[in-house]
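pipeline stage [seq->struct] | target=Membrane protein | organism=Streptomyces purpureus | residues=97
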Amino acid sequence: MSDNGTGAATLRYTLMRLGVFAGCFFALWGLVHLGVLPRGLGDSNLLWVLVLAVVISAPLSFVLLRKQREAMSEQIATKVDRAKTRLEASRSQEDGV
């Protein structure tokens, strides 16, 4: 079924990524609320802050979470390699039958 190491690395990266986004969102929300950054037009203030948070958190996550992303991808690649090996073994058994 699921390899706990892969699941843990993926969950850890995802939670850290969400944390970076949430940190950016609340920091930007505060800056907009204080008037440092402009408000959105009309009722679009929340959308404005969300878009800014996505735009800012993406490159931050790319740089800050490099180690976690590499660990996650390494574990996923290992799991995929094991699945390919099992599939190949299954195919060779079917060919032998």
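stage status: PASS
auto-comment: The chain has three helices and no strands. The chain has a mean pLDDT of 88.
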